Amino acid sequence: MNDVDPLGSAKQGQSAVRALDLLFLIAQTEKPIGMAEAAQALNLPRSTVYRLAQILVDYGVVVRLPEGLLPAPRLFLFTSGNRAAASMEATLEPHLNRCRDLTRDTAGLHVRVGWYRRTIAEIEGFHGIRWTRGVGYTAPLWNGAVGYVLSLALSDDELDQMLDQADLTPLASNTPKTPAQVRERIAETRSQGWCYSEGESVDGAAAIAAPVTAGGKIVASLSVYAPVSRGRELTAFGEELAEVAKEASQTWQHFATRADTRDSGSQTWSNIETDLLADET
Q1: Which conformational region is residue 134 in: left (phi greater than 0), alpha (psi within -120 to 50 degrees), or beta?
Q2: IclR-ED domain: which residues (predicted)?
């Protein structure tokens, strides 16, 4: 018979429950939640929430932004029942390479996190003068080509809620200043099937973007971005980018269909439990 430490088991169970409570709280929010707000909601010391949040961040299921905590793209991919699905960037890398090769400019892959968009993969362009964002780059959904593409996944109620909460303080010279302007840009994107923007998120930058879908839902966006001096040249590749995005959608759908749905990432949670217990000792 194995010896069991009741105290250790109790601590581990308490830590796991607290971490799950925090994770569920973060997952239910459409905007970043601060440490103080989370501590108050869970009736826990802020120091405890900070330690639990750091563990969740380290394991890639939570993202820490300056404004607070958000669920990470990896968390949503785990819910599909396939831990390997977390490597969307690896699965779609050939399509990213094709985007870069077509335009010779930087290609990126982005997903929605609440009311934000996050870059999860990027391949730099060939030009000596080029624009890059970097993996982990995060910006609002309500501006820029990538934001409009990912906003197509929102229901009417979700779009209303996002725009009610949106801070439309201009980030750049062409940032939309009213909810009506954002709605117009999203409608244009839906009609065209892809989007072009310049100077909306950052002055001096231009981008084209198109949706990646799975099961009829938008799950990501492929994009190409460049200095605004080459921005208009990007529009010539808009239709081609949309076609590459359709091919990427087929690849991702095929990957998801073949995935072993019984592999729910239990090993990852086991590792988290180990760290939680160590944190309590």
Answers
A1: left
A2: 74-254
Instruction: Tell me the CATH number at 250.
Output: 3.30.450.40
Q: Is residue 36 part of a domain?
A: yes
Residues 126 and 17 in one domain: no
User: Which range of residues forms the domain containing residue 99?
Assistant: 84-258
Amino acid occupying residue 173: S
Residues 184 and 248 in one domain: yes
Per-residue pLDDT of the chain (281 residues; tens, 9 = 90+): 444 444 444 455 577 788 888 988 887 766 788 899 999 989 999 999 999 998 888 877 788 877 788 877 666 555 543 343 357 888 899 999 999 999 999 999 999 988 999 898 999 999 988 888 888 888 999 999 999 999 999 999 999 999 999 989 998 999 999 999 999 999 999 999 999 999 999 999 999 999 999 888 999 999 999 999 998 899 999 999 999 999 999 998 877 666 544 344 444 444 544 555 555 44
Distance CA 61, CA 73 (A): 7
